[in-house]
Amino acid sequence: MASDVPILYVEGKDDISVVSALLLRHGLDTRRGKEHLFIKDLESVDELLKAMPDAVKAARSLPVGFVVDIDIACSQRWQAVQARLNFASDPTTKLETPLPAACPPGGYFGKVKDYPHRFGVWLMPDCQSDGKMLEDLAPTLMTQGDPLWAHAESASLEAAKLVDAANRQIPEHDRKWKRYSNQLRMKASVHTWLAWQREPGIEFGAAINAHVLRHDSDQAKGFLRWLRDLYDLPGLAHI
Questions:
Q1: At what angle do helices 149-168 and 185-195 cross, to 10 degrees?
Q2: What is the CA angle 218-117-237, rounded to 5?
Q3: pLDDT digit string (tens) for 217-230?
Q4: Which residues of the chain form beta strands (DSSP E)?
Q5: Mind listing the pLDDT tens digit for each residue in 1-39?
Q6: Domain membership of residue 97 as a residue range
Q7: Of 83 and 31, which is predicted with more confidence?
Q8: Which pLDDT score is estimated for 3?
């Protein structure tokens, strides 16, 4: 990674794939997050949150950003972000303005006093909706009226019901069949839908690159505007 490339911290490899694919479809080739913008995978939301204060303090010469899945109530996720970025235990690091009570709809931009560049936080997918995650962006990128999407949603729900019904027939002390958690239902539905495409099982980001998914929904463009404004990325003035 070149020393003059700013960093975007994300939760996992899927985020790298999706972010780089969206940028590529809008004309900015980051070489999967290695040029213009280095996208760093921290492998979990806990590790991402933990890394925030030190990453901001280390980014004196370039902007730095963080993409965090909401997953839970949006207010709770923002409280977790606030707890990491208020720098209460570090009197040498102070924000120019206090963190807002809620994440702004267009993403958060903050600045540490005496630092030349901003830092930013985006709560995926839209900074507002409770319980959402990266995969909740996918339906907004599907062609309207896609005949497989409603079926994929129904199939993933039916799969959960089948497992639950089977488990009710098994004594409590015996091994139970496993299924996805209710919190991950959208993820299950999206990957079910992806399994039925021309190339079965194509990844989310690869589906954007292959034009199986669009790149220009309102949610996607809102996220890209946050990236553009934080990093002053070339080629995104049209968004």
A1: 120
A2: 35
A3: 999 999 999 999 99
A4: 7-10, 38-41, 64-69, 108-111, 118-124
A5: 445 889 999 999 999 999 999 999 999 998 877 788 999
A6: 7-134+217-231
A7: 83
A8: 57
Please state the domain count of the chain: 2
Task: Please tell me the distance from the alpha carbon of residue 217 to that of residue 201, in angstroms, as a whole number.
Answer: 22
pTM (predicted TM-score): 0.93
**Residues 170, 222: Cα–Cα separation, whole Å:** 47
Torsion of CA 60, 9, 233, 115, to 10 degrees: -20
78-95 as b/e, with b when 16 or more CB fall inside 10 Å?
Answer: bebbbebbebeeeeebeb
Name residue 64's beta-bridge partners. 7, 119
60 band by pLDDT with thresholds 50, 70 and 90:
confident
Tokens of 188: 């299950």
Residue 29 tokens read as: 């080739």
The length of the chain in residues reads 239
My answer on whether 64 and 159 are in the same domain is: no
Residue 201 belongs to some domain of the structure: no
User: Which whole number is the average pLDDT over 166-188?
Assistant: 93
- Cα of 192 vs its chain's centroid, Å: 19
Report the C-alpha gap between 203 and 199 in whole angstroms: 10
162 and 116 assigned to the same domain: no
Hunting for tokens 């070489």 — which residue is that? 31
Name the strand (E) or helix (H) holding 222. helix 218-231
